[in-house]
Amino acid sequence: MEPSDIPMLWVDIETTGLDQFDLHAKILEFGYVITDSKLEVLDRDSWIIENRDIDPSNYDEFIQDFHGPDKTDLLTLSANGGTDIAGNPLGITTVKGTWEKLSWVDTFMAETICQSDIFGGELPMLHGSSIQFDRKWIEEHMPLLTNSLHHRSIDLSSLMELAKRWAPHVDIELSLTPKKTHRVDDDLDDSLDLAAMYRSQLFDRQGRWWSS
User: CA-CA distance, 192 to 200, in Å (whole number)?
Assistant: First the structure.
């Protein structure tokens, strides 16, 4: 499979903090999108992660501002189970947005997604915004997925910083309005929108870097 034909695996997670080694560190939500090289979506799913032992009082104001009851409420949803729009509990299934154990998601991503024929036998690279943060948490808490990924990652944040230096005439950040909901599906959509903007503004159809 030619590099230009290898699908792209986009991942986003929501967590209880910045330190993956913290005593109370938990992954609260996990989502992925697979696209082709033109960013057409081929597959996607997401799960609220079951953490029945979570005590929201263990987390500081910073995390409460992100995931407390006045924001995403992921701390409560992770402890008590996801709910639908009407507030009804969702069963533990593989349907988008439902509740799953992290061990199940780890196994599913490693054995079903990463070994899918869609990647043509290649180890998928992680793609995303500040994806190194997500990768650190995956390496600490999701060993099966870690061993099923390519060692390289594609980080849109790095491309953003390079564009500021090498293509300052292109102001992409101001062209987009991120949702900033701190939920994985919205964050993944924001990353895909940003990637599409970079693809159209920084590269031509032959993949050459636009000159200033």
Answer: 12
Sign of the torsion formed by the C-alpha atoms of 89, 91, 94 and 95: negative
Q: 46 near 184, Cβ under 8 Å? A: yes
Q: What is the pLDDT of residues 31-71, one digit of tens each?
A: 999 999 999 999 999 999 988 888 877 777 888 777 766 66
- Token match 């995403």: residue? 72
DSSP three-state, residue 126: strand
Provide long-range contacts, Cβ within 8 A and 24+ apart, for 77-80.
Answer: 77/28, 77/48, 78/26, 78/28, 78/29, 78/48, 78/49, 78/50, 78/51, 78/54, 79/51, 79/52, 79/53, 79/54
pLDDT at 93 over 50: no
3-state SS assignment for residue 180: coil
> What's the predicted TM-score (pTM) here?
0.86
Q: Tokens representing 98?
A: 């439902």
Pick the CATH number of 3-153 from 3.30.70.380, 3.40.50.10090, 3.30.420.10, 3.90.1010.10: 3.30.420.10
Dump pLDDT digits (tens) for 94-142: 334 566 889 999 999 999 999 999 998 999 999 999 999 999 999 999 9
Q: How far apart are the C-alpha atoms of 171 and 157, rounded to whole Å?
A: 14
Q: What is the mean pLDDT of residues 145-173?
A: 87
